[in-house]
Design goal:
It catalyses: Ca(2+)(in) + ATP + H2O = Ca(2+)(out) + ADP + phosphate + H(+). With 848 residues, the chain is α+β, with helices and mostly antiparallel strands. 50% of the residues lie in helices and 18% in strands. The termini are far apart. The structure holds adenosine-5'-triphosphate. The site of adenosine-5'-triphosphate (ATP) has 21 residues, from helix 14, strand 15, strand 16 and strand 19.
Length: 848
């Protein structure tokens, strides 16, 4: 049972601790995560690997014991590499889920705090507002206009009204608050909630397969078939030539293991997941992995103004009352008391009772707190003022209506106070309070007020009108009708300093930044101009104008628009659809519950980490932890970098694997001795496919990445010449390796030495090529070597591996190699370096 003190001050920390011990965390049981061991085992869960193990065991029994053991060791090492990649992916995906967990606003120790919802306990007093997902089962103790969507539990998506009366005061975990505000006492948490009883409704982060991963998986299948076919030919030709059957079989399977890029989809996930953690460091939390890919294609960023392009640090700069403008230093003049009453009483800021300093004591929407700060300098003074009246009811602010109102009991008299967007207020006013009298609000008065609004808006001020009603019987039905106009407040919300350079960056990257705001056309234009988003008022369109355009007209007009002003969240959906129809890839921000449909519809739905509601966060594919526009631009940049990196290692892996296949295929077509033994092929695979490929996945951004146009969403990963690059380079690596092998034979080297030369050539040409893969435009001489230290390290490890295998006699015996002399190394270096050299010269001269 909850006592009075709990209602007003909430639970104390000690009580919370005890209850957490007793009832546990407020979470629904999670799906079991995959254990590290099963991830490791899954590395062997591949048909070709098993065939290889089988073949190795057979050849081991037949006598090649050293070979067999080494092959098994190599397979295990490969599995370890695969395990590291996948384990990292699992961990980062799990971390992502935890970070996206919801929060709850709760009263504890006499203070309103925002806590992680899993720390709620029965007895906690929670504050709920529109857009929140209710964090636990609770009973409403105070409500104004609360409607909730309980469709998750009941299937009924009609909003259900909730009050503090006994019949309909139950609210349940998982339901969404559609409108209003209220306080509720938690009665059940975690698995004891109604939701817990239907546990599998747990809302998870999507683990959708990313389109790229899917495309690569199907490509992988084609490659598997191709590789197997070639391996069969190589094996068959060897056997026809009378070579040892087991050896040839082993050779074929080893080649298949080495050549099939089975790890490709996994590395893509790793690159995406690593990118996600890099993005997190830059304040964007990715909720849906496919978004990372789409980010790179973004061509339009539709951003809210308040808080995203601007600082959301409102300061009232000017007031208009009784036909006169008042500036900051005169807000405490007595004449302004009527305005002070409307803006203070019709206000939803929360007050922390412990704080004396008004700036610290006030909490809530910056528009609301700014209005209070304009009139009060101490929290005590504010409290005294607030205590003079009682609030009876409220119609909260909502971005569609663009206004709010309250009914108060002022010393026995009922009075309605209303504030909101000036035109919404003006259209509801029949009278105006002027020179101490209530007069008819004639057109001449209206145009004076409109002129004052325009003056404020042209100074980039956000305008709020104030009105009241104190005559007649005031009810919730008429509290916003036949009002008396009082005055205006104009507040500044300075643009974020970092936004202007980010806007420029967008433009250079072929991305169009669009401002979407509920604010006045002129205010929006003034700020848009300051940020270089637009240059002429004709690029601004209002919600009203938008309503007048049919879809066809909108499609014609939309390319010219840079700012949508005085729009409602509903308009956003139309805007997204219109841009999408024009084949644009749209990123759209949103915070309120009404923004959720547009956020969901956008290619990249972005929600606000600070001001966003739970519903919008759930609809979004990315959360901006700092609500900042610049963060969107860095996320797009990161998206492009990740995509480029994926292209880099696909280019690398496929051309190298192709090189290996061509080497063996060409040799068998030419009826040569096998240039590489099975064990050597596996060594090549281990030395080149593992670490260097992973290191390419974390390559730092190419400096040109934000100077290119956004890529087409449907573009194949092999587009823009990548396929040709892979085929040409793969063939050349193969040809050069065979030539290196033939040179060995030509210079009368032993078969083992010739194979060592071929092995060296194949490995070295891949290790040189990995640096070329870092850029599609710049030659190897222009890329700064040490900007990817991981790659340098990975290549160094591979070279050491090669040297050890060639020069340490023990490994020499196992891998059938001979130490090479300088002349032989020259052959290796010549054949492995020649293609890179020619390619670099070509790139260099093509550019200059
Ligand atoms: P954005 O979409 O960029 O966040 P915004 O915050 O200006 O724009 P809204 O919050 O929908 O959009 O506000 C629209 C208008 O409603 C404002 O210009 C202002 O006149 C009015 N308004 C804003 N907040 C309040 C409030 N708390 N009470 C009354 N009116 C408000």
């Amino acid at each position: 049972m909850i006592n009075e003190k709990e209602i007003y001050n909430g639970l104390r920390s000690k009580e919370v601790e005890d209850r957490l011990k007793k009832y546990g965390l407020n979470i629904l049981e999670k799906k079991k995560t995959i254990s590290a061991f099963s991830i490791f085992l899954s590395q062997f869960n591949d048909f070709i690997t098993w065939v290889l193990i089988g073949a190795t065991v057979i050849s081991g029994i037949m006598g090649e014991k050293a070979d067999a053991i080494t092959i098994i060791v190599i397979i295990v090492m490969n599995a370890i590499l695969g395990f590291i990649q996948e384990f990292r992916t699992e961990k980062s995906l799990e971390a992502l889920k935890n970070m996206a967990s919801p929060t709850a606003k709760v009263m504890r120790d006499g203070d309103i705090q925002v806590i992680n919802a899993e720390n709620l306990v029965p007895g906690d007093l929670i504050i709920i507002e529109s857009g929140d997902r209710i964090p636990a089962d609770a009973i409403i103790v105070q409500a104004s206009n609360v409607k909730v969507d309980e469709s998750l539990l009941t299937g009924e998506s009609i909003g259900v009204e909730k009050t503090d009366s006994n019949e309909n005061n139950n609210i349940y975990m998982g339901s969404i608050v559609l409108t209003g505000k209220g306080e509720a006492r938690v009665i059940e948490t975690g698995m004891n909630t109604e939701m817990g009883k239907i546990a599998n409704l747990l809302q998870n982060i999507d683990e959708d397969k990313t389109p790229l991963k899917e495309k690569l998986s199907s490509l992988g299948k084609v490659l598997v078939v191709l590789c197997i076919a070639i391996c069969i030919i190589v094996t068959a030709l060897g056997i026809i030539r009378g070579q040892d059957k087991y050896q040839m079989f082993l050779l074929g399977v080893s080649l298949a293991v080495a050549a099939i890029p089975e790890g490709l989809p996994a590395i893509v996930t790793v690159a995406l997941a690593l990118g996600v953690s890099r993005m997190l460091k830059r304040n964007s939390l990715i909720r849906k992995l496919p978004a990372v890919e789409t980010l790179g294609c973004t061509s339009i960023i539709c951003s809210d103004k308040t808080g995203t392009l601007t600082q959301n640090m409102m300061t009232v700069k000017s007031m208009y009352y009784n036909g006169k403008m008042y500036s900051e230093n005169s807000f405490n003049e007595r004449v302004l008391t009527p305005l002070k009453k409307v803006f203070t009483y019709c206000n939803d800021s929360d007050l922390n009772n412990k704080e004396k300093d008004i700036s610290k004591a006030l909490m809530g929407d910056p528009t609301e707190t700014a209005l209070i700060k304009a009139f009060f300098s101490s929290a005590d003074e504010l409290k005294r003022f607030l205590n003079k009246v009682n609030r009876i009811s409220e119609i909260p602010f909502d971005s569609n209506r663009k206004m709010m109102s309250v009914i108060l009991n002022d010393r026995g008299n009922k009075i309605s106070y209303v504030k909101g967007a000036p035109e919404r207020i003006i259209e509801r006013c029949k009278y105006i309070f002027i020179d101490g009298e209530v007069k008819l609000f004639t057109n001449s008065y209206k145009s004076k007020v409109q002129a004052a609004v325009d003056t404020m808006a042209n100074r980039a001020l956000r305008c709020i009108g104030a009105a009241y009603k104190d005559k007649g019987i005031i009810t919730q039905n008429n509290q916003e009708k036949d009002l008396v106009f009082l005055g205006l407040a104009g507040m500044i919300d300075p643009p974020r300093q970092e936004v202007k350079p980010a806007v420029l960056k967008c433009k250079e990257a072929g991305i169009k930044p669009i401002m979407i705001t509920g604010d006045h056309k002129n205010t929006a234009f003034a700020i848009g101009k300051e940020l270089d988003i637009c240059s002429h008022i004709s690029e601004v369109i209002t919600g009203e104008e938008l309503d007048r355009l049919n879809d066809k007209k909108l499609a014609e007009a939309i390319n010219k628009v840079k700012i949508f002003a005085r729009v409602s969240p509903e308009h956003k959906l139309r805007i997204v659809k219109a841009f999408k129809k024009k084949n644009k890839i749209v990123a759209m921000t949103g915070d309120g519950v009404n923004d959720a449909p547009a956020v969901k519809e956008a290619d990249i739905g972005i929600s606000m980490g600070i001001s966003g509601t739970d519903v919008t966060k759930e609809a979004s594919s990315m959360i901006l932890l700092d609500d900042n526009f610049t963060t969107i631009v860095s996320a797009v940049e990161e998206g492009r970098v990740i995509y480029n990196n994926i292209r880099k290692f696909i280019r690398y892996l496929l051309s190298c694997n192709l090189g290996e296949v061509i080497t063996m295929f060409l040799a068998s077509l030419l009826y040569l001795d096998t240039p590489l033994l099975p064990i050597q092929i596996l060594l090549v695979n281990l030395a080149t496919d593992g670490l260097p490929a992973i290191a390419l996945g974390v390559d730092p951004p190419d400096k040109d990445v934000m100077y290119e146009m956004p890529r087409d969403k449907n573009e194949s990963i092999f587009a823009r010449g990548l396929k040709e690059k892979i085929i040409i380079r793969g063939s050349l690596i193969g040809v050069c390796t065979v030539l290196a092998f033939l040179s060995g034979r030509f210079f009368h080297m032993s078969l083992e030495t010739s194979r060592t030369v071929a092995l060296g050539t194949l490995i070295m040409s891949q290790l040189i090529h990995v640096f070329e893969c870092r850029s599609e435009k710049h030659s190897i001489f222009e890329i700064k070597l040490f900007t990817n230290i991981y790659l340098v390290g990975a290549v160094a490890i591979s070279i050491i591996m090669l040297i050890v295998v060639i020069y340490v006699p023990f490994f020499g015996t196992i891998f059938h190699t001979n130490p090479l002399n300088i002349g032989q190394w020259l052959i290796v270096m010549f054949f492995s370096g020649i293609i890179a050299m020619i390619n670099s010269l070509y790139l260099f001269f093509n550019k200059n």
